[in-house]
C-alpha cells in the first residue's frame, strides 16, 4: 500500500490541506497483476503496465464527468491516493476479470485496474488475493529509456518489491498527468501513454529530485520509511 505526499499541481483534485485529506473517507485504487507460475511477467514490463493502467483508469469515459465510476474517482482523489497491488493466477485471475475494471496488457504483463473502493470495503474476490511478497525479475537486460519518452525514475537507493514499485510507478504517472497541459494530455492519451520505468543512476538522483519535476514521497505504510522519495516523473512536456 502506498500514497503520495507531494505538493499537488494547481488543477490537482488533492485537498490542499493534508489534515483535510487525512480526515476525508479513505479509498484505495486496486490493481491486480497476473502472475502465472509457468509464465510470470518481466518486472519492468509489469511496472510500466501498472503505470499505464492508472492513466487508463483516470481517462476512461466511466471515470470522468457523470460516468459510473466518476464519483468513486473523485472521492479517492479527495483523500490520499492509495494504491494496492495484489497478484492472481488461474481461477483467481478469472474471478478478478469478472469484476468491473480494465485490463491493460504489456509485452508480457497483464494488469487489471478497478474503480476505487473504500479502504475497508474490498470485493471478496479481491480481498482474498495476496498483497505481500509480489516480486518479479527481468530475465533479459533492460535497455535504456528511449529519449523523448516519459520516464518514471525509481530511487536507486531503495529496494522495493515489484508490487510496491508498481504502486509507486502508478503514483508517478498520475502526478505527471496532473502536471500536463490539456494539449499535452491529449497527445499522451492519443498515443497510448508511452512511458518507461527505470531505476535512476545514483549520480543522477539528486539532480532529478531537485529539478522541479513531480516527485512521489511515500507515506511509509509498507516496506520503506515515511517521506522517502520513490519516483521522479520526467515527462518532456513538464520540463
UniProtKB/TrEMBL annotation:
It is an enzyme of class 3 (hydrolase). It holds the Pfam family PTH2. It catalyses: an N-acyl-L-alpha-aminoacyl-tRNA + H2O = an N-acyl-L-amino acid + a tRNA + H(+). It comes from the Bacteria. Keywords: Hydrolase. GO terms for molecular function: peptidyl-tRNA hydrolase activity. This is peptidyl-tRNA hydrolase. It comes from Streptomyces marokkonensis. Residues 1-23 are annotated as: Disordered. Its EC number is 3.1.1.29.
Amino acid at each position: 500500500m502506498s500514497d503520495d505526499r507531494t505538493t499537488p499541481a494547481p488543477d490537482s483534485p488533492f485537498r490542499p490541506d493534508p489534515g483535510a485529506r487525512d480526515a476525508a473517507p479513505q479509498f484505495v485504487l486496486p490493481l491486480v497483476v497476473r502472475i502465472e507460475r509457468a509464465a510470470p511477467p518481466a518486472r519492468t514490463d509489469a511496472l510500466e503496465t501498472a503505470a499505464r493502467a492508472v492513466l487508463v483508469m483516470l481517462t476512461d469515459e466511466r471515470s470522468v464527468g457523470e460516468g459510473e465510476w466518476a464519483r468513486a474517482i473523485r472521492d479517492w482523489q479527495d483523500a490520499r491516493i492509495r494504491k494496492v497491488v495484489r497478484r492472481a493466477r488461474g481461477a483467481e485471475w478469472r474471478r478478478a476479470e469478472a469484476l468491473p475494471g480494465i485490463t491493460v496488457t504489456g509485452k508480457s504483463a497483464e494488469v487489471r485496474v478497478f474503480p476505487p473502493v473504500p479502504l475497508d470495503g474490498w470485493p471478496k474476490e479481491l480481498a482474498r488475493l495476496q498483497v505481500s511478497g509480489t516480486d518479479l525479475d527481468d530475465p533479459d537486460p533492460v535497455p535504456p529509456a528511449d529519449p523523448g519518452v516519459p520516464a518514471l525514475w525509481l530511487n536507486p537507493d531503495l529496494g522495493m518489491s515489484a508490487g510496491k514499485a508498481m504502486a509507486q510507478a502508478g503514483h508517478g504517472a498520475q502526478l505527471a498527468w496532473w502536471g500536463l497541459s490539456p494539449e499535452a494530455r491529449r497527445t499522451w492519451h492519443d498515443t497510448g501513454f508511452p512511458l518507461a520505468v527505470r531505476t535512476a543512476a545514483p549520480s543522477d538522483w539528486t539532480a532529478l529530485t531537485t529539478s522541479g519535476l513531480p516527485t512521489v514521497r511515500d507515506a511509509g505504510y509498507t516496506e520503506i520509511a515515511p517521506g522517502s522519495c520513490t519516483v521522479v516523473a520526467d515527462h518532456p512536456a513538464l520540463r
